[in-house]
What we know:
A seven-stranded antiparallel β-sheet has the order 2-1-5-6-7-4-3. It contains one helix and seven strands; from the N terminus they run ββββαβββ. By secondary structure, the protein is mainly β.
Amino acid sequence: MAMTLPRGSIFSIEAKDLLASPAGTTKIWNKITEHNRSEFNINTERIEKVVRTSNGTLRKNFVADKRKFSTSWNMLPSYRSLTVDGAWGAQDLRSFYLGEEGQTAFKIRINIAQNGVSQESSGYEEYNVIFTDCSFAIAKRGLQPHWNVSLSMDEV
């Protein structure tokens, strides 16, 4: 039985809902499981050009700040039927990554729960990202394999 977490999943991926429409044109927010997840890192990459001029002063041209996201899971069940919260498991993530949507830019929502309560309906931070690194390793085989999963995403 799935567990309801007081703060919800830390992030969700917007993807086609193949169950709702045969053509897969409807997009929904799919929660990513918290099952054995390590820390969720949010780093900032500052895009800028810094030049020391001939008179010795420093000139800086700021372009933008872009976010980098990374996280990993140990012993993550393959399917959502065995995750503690009923959210996407390793096979769901793998299918998305290897599919057409994972090869291009996609949207994620980050749920930081800044005010200490669940943000199921509002308060998300939304980013347009691409995968920069993703790895899937089978940690344990059985009726349902368990995976060690690691992924990194960069803001577009």
